[in-house]
Structure to design on (240 residues):
């Protein structure tokens, strides 16, 4: 169209672009973990366009690109083959308070994973967590995350489960659709084989492992959590 404006193009180019966001509570553990690995907190915050004051507000929403900026700055400062694994290794239990507490207060490994799946939406992070408890072995699938997020989530979950089951809870196999920097390092850290180029991201677990007891189980807390869940509009749908 010469000498005029295409109204469809005009509307498309003038429309405000809104990036997806997630809660600051999901950013703080990443930032704290990178600092534990020796990265400079001030430079990380500057690269991500954040401040400690903003992160201290639980209602703060940040663009989904913030995590990418933090990881990008960390890799630029100090390249690491498996940054996600190292980050998971130094992230303590309690970094994600509600989810961690519900998981480790469960009676068994399987019940803990079911709690995480039910309340995963409360983490306010991109992605999803699906349990296929009717399969044998049981499958724990992560969706909607970039490769770094998948590696971090899988490693963090399995490392914490191992610690809270006195070292007995191990996946039968970890599956990645992509190829991590060093798959052998994941096998050594997680104590199981790692398959790459898989059809889904996550891990498989035997039913024997699923039934292992958790050392801090608290049935009273779990009963209260289930009762509160019925009135929580943000909780994910039950799984299993």
């Amino acid at each position: 169209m010469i000498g005029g404006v295409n109204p469809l193009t005009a509307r498309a180019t003038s429309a405000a672009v809104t990036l997806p966001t997630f809660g600051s509570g999901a950013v703080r553990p990443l930032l704290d973990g990178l600092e534990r690995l020796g990265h400079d907190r001030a430079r990380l915050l500057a690269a991500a366009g954040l401040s400690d004051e903003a992160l201290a507000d639980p209602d703060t929403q940040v663009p989904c690109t913030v995590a990418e900026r933090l990881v990008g700055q960390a890799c630029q400062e100090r390249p690491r083959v498996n940054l996600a694994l190292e980050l998971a290794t130094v992230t303590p239990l309690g970094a994600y308070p509600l989810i961690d507490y519900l998981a480790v207060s469960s009676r068994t490994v399987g019940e803990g994973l079911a709690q995480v799946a039910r309340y995963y939406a409360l983490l306010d992070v991109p992605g999803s967590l699906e349990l296929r408890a009717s399969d044998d072995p049981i499958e724990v699938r992560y969706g909607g995350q970039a490769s770094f997020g998948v590696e971090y989530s899988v490693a963090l979950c399995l490392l914490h489960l191992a610690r809270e089951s006195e070292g007995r809870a191990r996946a039968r196999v970890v599956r990645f659709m992509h190829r991590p920097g060093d798959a052998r390092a994941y096998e050594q850290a997680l104590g199981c084989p790692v398959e790459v180029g898989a059809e889904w991201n996550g891990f498989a677990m035997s039913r024997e492992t699923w039934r292992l007891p958790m050392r801090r189980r608290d049935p009273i807390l779990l009963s209260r959590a289930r009762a509160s869940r019925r009135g929580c509009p943000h909780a994910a749908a039950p799984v299993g």
Notes: The CA atoms of residues 110 and 210 lie 4 Å apart. The beta strands are 21-23, 61-63, 128-132, 138-143, 173-176, 194-196, 201-205. Confidence is low (pLDDT under 50) at residues 1-17, 224-240. The first helix runs from residue 7 to 14.
